[in-house]
């Protein structure tokens, strides 16, 4: 009987590196402060104003290329999808209209 490794498990608080604010800012700037979420319905990038930075891969992988800028809407969508039925949540999200964009 061995305890679970400290980094394993869903209840742990995600730890961010000390230079996270700088990394985050760099990512946002590189993306022009535009949401990088690709909508499944249109296959276009959302493009709404991004003020969140999200990990595209492992949550402990903070490399520049493993991050993406997201608008608040898609960041929330992604966080609420995690741990649950992510595919179903994404399908639901794709059907819903994005409130942040008017065309
Ligand atoms: Zn978005």
Strand content: 5-15%
Question: What structural class results from the helix and strand content?
Answer: alpha+beta
Q: Give the H and E element order.
A: HEEHH
Our count of helices gives 3
Average of pLDDT:
82
Cα-to-Cα separation, first versus last residue: 58 Å
Give the biggest sheet: 2 strands, antiparallel
Estimate the helix proportion, in percent: 25-40%
Spatial order of strands in the largest sheet: 1-2
Query: Could you say how many structural domains there are in total?
Result: 1
Say how many strands there are.
2
Return residue spans where pLDDT drops below 50 for at least 5 consecutive residues. Answer: none
Chemical compounds bound to the protein: zinc ion
Shape: globular
User: How many whole angstroms does the radius of gyration measure?
Assistant: 15 Å
Write the layout of secondary structure elements.
Elements: H1 20-30, E1 52-55, E2 67-70, H2 72-81, H3 86-95
Antiparallel strand pairs: 1-2
The structure holds zinc ion.
């Amino acid at each position: 009987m061995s305890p679970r490794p400290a980094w394993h498990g869903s209840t742990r608080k995600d730890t961010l590196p000390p230079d996270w604010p700088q990394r985050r800012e760099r990512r946002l700037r590189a993306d022009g402060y535009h949401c990088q979420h690709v909508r499944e319905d249109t296959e276009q990038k959302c493009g709404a104003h991004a003020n969140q930075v999200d990990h595209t891969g492992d949550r402990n992988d903070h490399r520049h290329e493993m991050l993406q800028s997201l608008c608040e809407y898609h960041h929330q969508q992604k966080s609420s999808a995690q741990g649950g039925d992510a595919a179903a949540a994404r399908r639901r999200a794709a059907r819903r209209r994005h409130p942040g964009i008017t065309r």
